Amino acid sequence: MAVTGVSDGVLARGLERIAIDIDRAFDELLPVPEDARRRLVEAMRYATIGGGKRLRPLLLAATADLYGVDRAQAVRAGAAIEAIHVYSLIHDDLPCMDNDDLRHGKPTVHKAFDDATAVLAGDSLHALAFEILADPRMSGDPFMRAELVVTLARASGHDGMAGGQMMDMAAETETFDLHTITRLQQLKTGALLGAAVEMGAILGRVPHEGRAHLHNYARDIGLAFQIVDDLLDHEGDPDKAGKALRKDDAQGKQTFVSLLGPERARDQAHALVDQAIGHLAAHGKEADLLRAIARFIVERDR
C-alpha cells in the first residue's frame, strides 16, 4: 500500500511492523488441525493473514506505546480487535448482506470456500477475540482483562458495529438525514476505531478521566475515515480498492458525499483530521504515529 505525504516514514514503518506482528500472531493462534476442522481453520487463516490495512491494531499499538506498554501485549490485544474486524468483513461479504465477490483484491471467504464455512469462520474469529483478551497471557490483572473484554464487546454489538450495520441495511429503504448518517457511521465504523484507542489506553493504565483527549481523537478520525470511504466509493479506483465500488449510489443510500457533495465532504474530512491532531497537543514526538495515522486517513487511495 502506497503511503504518501508522510516524509518522515513514521507511518510506513508503523504499517510494516504491525502487519508483520499481526500476521505472526494469527499464524501462532491458528494452527491447522489434522481433522475435519481443517477447512474452517484454513478459512480463518485465509481471512486474517496477509491482507488489510491493520489500522485498528496499529491504532491500539500506537496508543499503548504512548504509555510504555510492552509491545507483545499490545500486539496480542491488537490481534483480538483485528479478529473482530475480520469476522465483520467475512459476514458483511455474504450473499445475505452485501454479497461481495472481492475483498483485499482476492475472492471473499464465501467465494474461496463456501457460505457455511464463511459463517463459521466469522463466528470462530468473534469467539477467538474474547478468548485472547480473557486469557491470563493477555495480562496478569483480571480487572484489566475484564475492561478490555467489555470495551471490545460494547464496540462490536448492537451499541456499536453490528448496530451500525443494521442501520446501514435500513438505509437502503429509508431516507436518512446528516445527523442519522453520522450516528450510523459512528457505530458502524467509529466504534471499533474508538475501541482500538481505548484498549491501548487501558493497557497503559490511563484512568477514565485521563482519556478524554484520546476519545475525541478517535471520534474525529472515525468520522473522517468514513467520509473518505464514501468518497472512494463514489470516485475511487476499484483496482486499487481491491473490492467493488459505487455500491452506495446503486443502492440509493444517503452518504456523506450524497448529502454534502464531494468537495464539502472532502473539506470536512480534512477539518476532522486537523481537529483530531489538535487533541494530541499535550503529547510530544511519542504521538507522531497517531498524528501520521490521522493524516493517512485522508490521503489513502483505498
Terminal Cα span: 9 Å
Low-confidence stretches: 1-7
Largest sheet: 2 strands, antiparallel
How many DSSP helices?
A: 15
Total tally of structural domains? 1
Corresponding CATH superfamily: Farnesyl Diphosphate Synthase
Mean pLDDT equals: 92
Q: What's the oligomerization state? A: single chain
User: Which class do the helix and strand fractions yield?
Assistant: mainly alpha
CATH topology name, in short, is: Farnesyl Diphosphate Synthase
SSE string, helices as H and strands as E? HHHHEEHHHHHHHHHHH
Please give the CATH class. Mainly Alpha
Tell me the Rg in angstroms: 18 Å
β-sheet strand percentage? under 5%
> Using DSSP, what is the number of strands?
2
Second rung of CATH, namely the architecture: Orthogonal Bundle
**Strand line-up in the sheet with most strands:** 1-2
Helicity, in percent?
55-70%
Q: What overall geometry do the principal axes of the alpha carbons give?
A: globular
Architecture overview:
Strand 1 (102-103) and strand 2 form a beta hairpin. Helix content is 69%, strand content 1%. It is built from 15 helices and 2 strands. It has one domain (10-299): Farnesyl Diphosphate Synthase (Orthogonal Bundle), CATH 1.10.600.10. A two-stranded antiparallel sheet has the order 1-2. Helix 3 packs across helix 9, helix 8 (161-170) packs antiparallel against helix 9 (178-203) and helix 10 (212-235) runs antiparallel to helix 14 (262-278). The chain has helices spanning 10-29, 38-48, 55-66, 71-92, 109-112, 115-134, 142-156, 161-170, 178-203, 212-235, 238-241, 247-251, 256-260, 262-278, 288-299, and strands spanning 102-103, 106-107. It is an all-alpha fold and 302 residues long. The model is unreliable at 1-7 (pLDDT under 50).
